[in-house]
Amino acid sequence: QVELVESGGGSVQSGGSLRLTCSASGYTTRPICMSWFRERPGGQREVVARIDIDGDTYYATPVEGRFTVSQDKEKPIIYLDMNNLKPVDSSTYYCAANLGKYYCRYTKDITNWGNGTLVTVSS
Question: Which residues contact 111 (CB under 8 A, 6 or more apart)?
Answer without folding.
Answer: 97, 98, 99, 100
